[in-house]
Amino acid sequence: MSTGIDTAAARTTAYLAGRGTLPRGTEAIPYQWIVAARGRDLQACGAKETAPGECLKALGGAGGDALMGAADSFLRSGELAVALVGSGLAALRIREVADPAAVRPVWRRALLCALLLTAPLLPYLSGDPACTLLIGALAIVRAPATALPLTTPTAARRTPLKRGCC
Question: Which of 11, 37, 91, 137 has an alpha carbon within 20 to 30 A of 127's alpha carbon?
Fold first, then answer.
């Protein structure tokens, strides 16, 4: 039985052994997270010396896709934090959330990544009228005439967050 994940796992294993190049694509992103976060342990077992740095660079280049894929790595928050900083993803400026529902699984397994992915929605969820008015005013001033808002503050408040989802 061969799935995309199995193929990515096999290619990552070969890469760590010095055979082949770093696997790319969304199916390889969870493995890139693991190598980036646990690189020293892997190197102690004979893995390619440059692998952690190459994975950090690949994750940084993948942007939001890398943040989404972090959930499938099953890494602990502390491990993710080190890789988030090392890859530059911690400084990634997400400007919109195209599909908030797609981020729900990330909240369960990669809280820091989910927070970065949904950062543009946080002022709407805060319930602070001053924040809501300021963001609404900025959107009107900066948005082209054809742009539609991602959601309205009222709609954001109507969408309840599941308790215990994180």
Answer: 91
Q: Is residue 55 within 8 Å of 39, Cβ to Cβ? A: yes
Provide the 8-state DSSP code for 70: G
Q: How far apart are the first and last CA of the chain?
A: 32
For the chain, the 3-state helix, strand and coil shares in percent, each to the nearest 5, are 65, 0, 35
* pTM of structure: 0.70
- pLDDT tens-place string over residues 116-145: 998 888 776 666 666 555 555 545 444 444
- The answer to whether the CB of 46 falls within 8 A of the CB of 61 is no
User: For the CA atoms of the chain, what is the radius of gyration?
Assistant: 19
- Taking residue 87's Cβ as centre, other Cβ atoms within 10 Å add up to 25
Counting beta carbons within 10 angstroms of the beta carbon of residue 120, is it exposed (0 to 12), middle (13 to 18) or buried (19 or more)? Answer: middle
- 88: phi > 0 → left, psi -120 to 50 → alpha, else beta; which? left
* Token pair of 110 as six digits: 């990669």
Phi, psi of 6 (to 5 degrees): -60, -40
Q: Is the dihedral of CA 162, 93, 127, 150 positive or negative?
A: negative
